[in-house]
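Hi all, long-time lurker, first post. I run a small reading group and we've been trying to get comfortable going from sequence to structure in the token notation. Rather than ask abstract questions, I figured I'd post a concrete chain and ask someone more experienced to write out its structure so we can walk through it together at our next meeting. Sequence below, copied exactly:
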Amino acid sequence: MTVEAKISPAFSAFLSESGPNDRRDAIVIYEAPALEDSPDPTQLWESETRQKYLKERIKVQKSVAAELFETYKTAGAERLPDHQPPAVSKIGSGALPIATVEVTRRTLPALAKHPSVVAILPNQKIQLIRPSAIAYDDLNRQEAKQGITWGLQQLGIPDLWAYSKGANINVAVLDTGVFSEHPALQDRVKDFVVIDPMGRRITADPPFDSGQHGTHVCGIIAGGKTPEGVAIGIAPEANLLAANVMIGEATLQTLMEGISWAVEKGAHVLNLSLGFMYYEPKFARVFELLQNQFNILPVVAIGNEAHGNSRSPGNAYSAFSVGAVERMSHNRLDVASFSSGASLVFPGQTAYALVTKPDVVAPGTQVYSCIPPQDQPDGSYYYTYMDGTSMAAPHVAGVVALLMAIFPKMPVTKILQVLKDTAKHPDGERRRPDNRWGYGLIQPLEALQALKHEATPQAERDKSI
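-- Answer (accepted) --
Happy to help. Here is the structure in token form:
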């Protein structure tokens, strides 16, 4: 890989107003040799195997990082007039081969030149993908009658509960935190951390939500029932690992620290309803690491900026990104007007020159879920309706948790592919994927049947023919 190919194109704008020696923070992703006795990714399901694997990976990556950054500090000091080496700080425990480094226009090529470096990204600001609407309306009469939200009903979730409700699956929600004392989330939040703008981990008890968003997302994934007996959560027995990564001016460093924390805590699924407004192709490396080395599936909201737009990291080629559908008249579904989607073309590139997002869609309007108590003129509210791809993504993350619980030995890459293959596009196979529906609306029951087929030994399949 050439030096230029390792450097994010976003650096052109990121460093445009900087002098040649002005230091800016960047995120570097490096690679380390594979372990001699690397377990199959599906074996990482077991906690002891996962922790042993993490320790071995940290050990190997630590030696690679030490040589890489010592070389960079020496080369950087030679290129800077004050001869002070650029600062380097690791992300988390070192479980992920990612670090924060200082770069300048002069030192950036020197960093990219090192053979262990695979990608360098500017430490840009990230924002929450905020709901397009919040409504403190009374519970919908039909949902109250059916005892389930329309999104869960649409996806046929009660039929999956006959197999599992997500027990033993850890879903990490990187968001505004969570109000863990909410009755609908009783005993669901297993761990919590705050990541401050400097990337420092801060413990807090009880877990809190600096807004409403994180609690609403957590409720969609693993919430129980409302006082009226309405089920709001896809995987009500899944464990929640909540990280508040949106305190103050959050950046990629904050997000990377949250991802590293989730890996260390044993996450199986990540839910990311956040991003930034440009295409960052290098973020794809992070998703590949999570899927291929740790058997973790990240689910990402694509954004609420309407058709023709998309957010990173949801528009990275390896992202599993989600758009939102809404209910129309006569029980018809359509992609919500706010739901982002785009086809990104990059002339002159041969690899991943065309990226079409989102990958799938899920219910994302009039989604009823829990929130921290909010005082309104007519009383206090513990539940509300929200619209947004931020509400669609946790529907998919919850479905992934159910499927993982049912098929614990299935690679996450297979679960991802099956969800895309079985998704339903209103215009049929010929339109899949497009930049509104992606591959289509997820079909959890069809995905379940497809994974059953995958899990059945070939000899048994032959007998049934």
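A couple of things your group might point at:
The longest strand covers residues 367-376.
The radius of gyration is 22 Å.
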